């Protein structure tokens, strides 16, 4: 799924001009008598803070980000949202003494206009070629010598450096403001941000992770020796969780916890909460061969500065961190603020990101197993939905979302959705980042519509992400059927592709589009993303997209990727087919439809292919078999047979006879007329 962040929802009840703002964190409604006044109040508070800095700030930048470069952010970090009232998951606000601007992309223009006060906020349409970038705008609208402020914790070093260089060229300065000025403005207005979540951490046993935390740290330390570094600083929340085999629930849909991890040759320091680690956590870590020292989450900067000072006296060793770590962590790790000669840093794609990209056998078995259980839930849901609509009962998108969750909850080791379900009926299916609104009238799913359902689950043994599109009465128009089949051909082209080991994922992207391109159709998103193991549903650094993923190390066996081409007819319907696949080495004896025809091994590099692990059939009535060649038809029938053979015994054992007969009908082989 290609959805972004959306944490706090704003809700306008237009009764007697009263506006309520709902905070997802506290779930309370805050009445505001005058929306315009509130918007101005917040800006005024920020502007007076900008003016009272040691050197006056001409502009202040508020991105949508937390200190860990998380894709989803917690309510406490939703600062741009609080300031502007705009709740979209992407956007950057820039405030000057007289202007307040918000850069966001085409997904959000309408939402922006609904949610923000047009007298106060200006929309900068990021997707239009004539819209200046933030750097350009600042350089041409501020006067020479101007100081632009930002919180260095919520910008990656790369973003910071790019902005800084642009400003310096225009004789301006980027200033790291130590306290976040939006947080301060909230204090002034007596409208405090919710507390940073600090939920319980749960140990994830070896039977799910397949590798002890001790082993992982040993490997990282070996890499540290090669790199001659004094410390490895881990800042991404999923990387901390992966390294220590722990999971949390501080960010919705993402089983992570707010923390930093610093590994040195002799210590492992976890910065979390107030620093005291729960007993069961310590116990598991001890069993897994790691002694972890706990420190308060807020102590990381001082700790890194001290480490830098020690190293400076010690020799010329460096500190290693991710280029996605914040500017503030880079500054602290180099000791720049406390030493005359700061340390050199190694700032590059994180070694933990590269490690967790390749799933071990236990993780892969978990992925396969949870996809079977997830398949059972999704099959049961679709049978339920067709039954209800067939009996002329009303089912809204929101009701469908809730029912699907009920089915998933019946499956073992289910921990919650892996993202906000996209349940789009008819034209809503064409909105790539759609979420059915729970406020106001809900949209029913109609019998004569296509229905796109993109959803996923977090399970202790893996993470799922699946999209199926179905016509509710099985009577698609010829155009719908044509597009459905072409998208499916694209998905099968990826699913059955063979390619040399080590090529980057973006090499594969055009395979998925060929059948659509043949008739002048396309889709506006990438074809695949990595998926974490009971971690984030979007995981770098590999991906399959027409845009190259800059840090993709090249495909290797053991990766999990999504395979999700689509087609969107705006205002009418959307189609997307999404499976998760495992990258596998393929030889002549492999179970792969192209294995037996292999004549070479890609000039010694080795042959890779995919194994599809998602287990839900595609709707027969929407497939034009005459558009499929022999290979595709055989491939489709083999997939449906595998789905049936895998799920049928489970449905049978659970006496789900209705679901079983539906599945049987859906998985029957198809023949060309
Ligand atoms: C910023 O500069 C551009 C180009 O000089 C100008 O068109 C625009 O009105 C300025 N915006 C503000 C808010 O001053
Ligand atoms: C540290 O680096 C400097 C300059 O690169 C070099 O002269 C010095 O010998 C190095 N010290 C150690 C302990 O390696
Ligand atoms: C399924 O039905 C059979 C026969 O009615 C019964 O013996 C069995 O216990 C049932 N199993 C489950 C899981 O409900």
Automatic annotation (TrEMBL):
<dbReference type="InterPro" id="IPR000994">
    <property type="entry name" value="Pept_M24"/>
</dbReference>
<feature type="domain" description="Creatinase N-terminal">
    <location>
        <begin position="42"/>
        <end position="186"/>
    </location>
</feature>
<feature type="domain" description="Peptidase M24">
    <location>
        <begin position="366"/>
        <end position="582"/>
    </location>
</feature>
<feature type="signal peptide">
    <location>
        <begin position="1"/>
        <end position="26"/>
    </location>
</feature>
<comment type="similarity">
    <text>Belongs to the peptidase M24B family.</text>
</comment>
<keyword id="KW-0732">Signal</keyword>
<dbReference type="Pfam" id="PF00557">
    <property type="entry name" value="Peptidase_M24"/>
</dbReference>
<dbReference type="InterPro" id="IPR000587">
    <property type="entry name" value="Creatinase_N"/>
</dbReference>
<feature type="domain" description="Peptidase M24 C-terminal">
    <location>
        <begin position="607"/>
        <end position="669"/>
    </location>
</feature>
<dbReference type="InterPro" id="IPR033740">
    <property type="entry name" value="Pept_M24B"/>
</dbReference>
<dbReference type="Pfam" id="PF16189">
    <property type="entry name" value="Creatinase_N_2"/>
</dbReference>
<dbReference type="InterPro" id="IPR050422">
    <property type="entry name" value="X-Pro_aminopeptidase_P"/>
</dbReference>
<dbReference type="InterPro" id="IPR036005">
    <property type="entry name" value="Creatinase/aminopeptidase-like"/>
</dbReference>
<dbReference type="Pfam" id="PF16188">
    <property type="entry name" value="Peptidase_M24_C"/>
</dbReference>
<dbReference type="InterPro" id="IPR029149">
    <property type="entry name" value="Creatin/AminoP/Spt16_N"/>
</dbReference>
<dbReference type="InterPro" id="IPR032416">
    <property type="entry name" value="Peptidase_M24_C"/>
</dbReference>
<protein>
    <recommendedName>
        <fullName>Aminopeptidase P N-terminal domain-containing protein</fullName>
    </recommendedName>
</protein>
<dbReference type="Pfam" id="PF01321">
    <property type="entry name" value="Creatinase_N"/>
</dbReference>
């Amino acid at each position: 799924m290609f959805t972004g962040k959306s944490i706090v929802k704003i809700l306008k009840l237009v009764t007697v001009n009263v506006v309520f703002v709902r905070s997802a964190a506290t779930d309370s409604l805050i009445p505001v008598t005058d929306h315009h006044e509130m918007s101005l109040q917040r800006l005024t508070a920020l502007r007076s803070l900008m003016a009272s800095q040691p050197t006056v700030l001409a502009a202040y930048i508020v991105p949508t980000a937390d200190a860990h470069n998380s894709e989803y952010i917690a309510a406490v970090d939703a600062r741009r949202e609080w300031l502007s009232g705009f709740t979209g998951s992407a956007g950057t606000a820039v405030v000057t003494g007289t202007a307040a601007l918000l850069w966001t992309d085409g997904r959000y223009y309408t939402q922006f206009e609904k949610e923000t006060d047009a007298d106060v906020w200006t929309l900068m349409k990021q997707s239009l070629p004539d819209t200046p970038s933030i750097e350009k705008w600042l350089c041409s609208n501020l006067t020479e010598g101007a100081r632009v402020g930002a919180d260095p914790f919520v910008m990656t070093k790369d973003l910071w450096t790019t902005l800084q260089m642009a400003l310096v060229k225009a004789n301006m300065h980027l200033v790291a403001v130590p306290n976040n000025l939006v947080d301060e403005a909230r204090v002034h207005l007596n409208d405090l941000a919710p507390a940073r979540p600090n939920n319980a951490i749960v140990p994830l046993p070896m039977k799910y992770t397949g590798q002890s935390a001790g082993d992982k740290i040993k490997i990282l330390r070996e890499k540290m020796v090669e790199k001659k570094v004094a410390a490895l600083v881990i800042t991404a929340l999923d990387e901390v969780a992966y390294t220590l085999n722990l999971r949390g629930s501080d960010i919705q849909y993402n089983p992570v916890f707010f923390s930093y991890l610093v590994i040195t040759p002799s210590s492992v320091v976890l910065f979390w909460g107030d620093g005291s680690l729960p007993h069961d956590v310590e116990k598991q870590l001890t069993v897994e061969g790691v002694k972890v020292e706990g420190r308060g989450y807020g102590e990381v900067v001082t700790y890194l500065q001290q480490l830098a000072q020690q190293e400076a006296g010690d020799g010329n060793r460096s500190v290693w961190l991710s280029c996605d770590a914040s500017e503030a962590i880079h500054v602290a790790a180099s000791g720049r603020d406390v030493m005359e000669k700061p340390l050199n840093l190694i700032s590059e794609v994180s070694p933990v990101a590269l490690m967790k990209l390749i799933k071990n056998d236990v993780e892969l078995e978990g992925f396969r197993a949870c996809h079977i259980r997830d398949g059972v839930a999704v099959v049961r849901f679709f049978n339920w939905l067709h039954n209800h609509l067939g009996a002329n009962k009303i089912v809204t998108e929101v009701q469908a979302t809730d029912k699907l969750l009920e089915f998933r909850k019946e499956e073992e080791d289910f921990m919650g959705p892996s993202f906000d379900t996209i349940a789009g009926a008819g034209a809503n299916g064409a909105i790539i980042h759609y979420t059915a609104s729970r406020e106001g009238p809900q949209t029913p799913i109609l019998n004569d519509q296509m229905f796109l359902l993109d959803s996923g689950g977090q399970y202790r043994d893996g993470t799922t992400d699946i999209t199926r599109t179905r016509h509710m009465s099985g009577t698609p128009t010829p155009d719908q059927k044509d597009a459905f089949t072409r998208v499916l051909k694209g998905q099968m082209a990826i699913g059955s592709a063979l390619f040399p080991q080590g090529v980057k994922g973006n090499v594969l992207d055009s395979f998925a589009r060929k059948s659509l391109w043949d008739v002048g159709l396309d889709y506006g998103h990438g074809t695949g993303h990595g998926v974490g193991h009971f971690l984030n549903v979007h995981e770098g650094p590999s991906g399959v997209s027409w845009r190259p993923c800059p840090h993709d190390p090249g495909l290797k066996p053991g990766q999990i990727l999504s395979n999700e081409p689509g087609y969107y007819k705006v205002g009418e319907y959307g189609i997307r087919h999404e499976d998760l696949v495992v990258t596998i080495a393929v030889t002549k004896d492999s179970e792969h439809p192209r294995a037996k025809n292999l004549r070479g091994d890609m000039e010694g590099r080795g042959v890779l292919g995919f194994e599809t692990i998602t287990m839900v059939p595609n709707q027969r009535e929407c497939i034009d078999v005459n558009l499929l060649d022999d290979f595709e038809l055989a491939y489709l029938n083999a997939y449906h047979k595998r789905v049936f053979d895998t799920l049928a015994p489970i449905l049978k054992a659970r006496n789900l006879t209705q679901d079983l007969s539906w599945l049987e009908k859906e998985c029957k082989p198809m023949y060309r007329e």
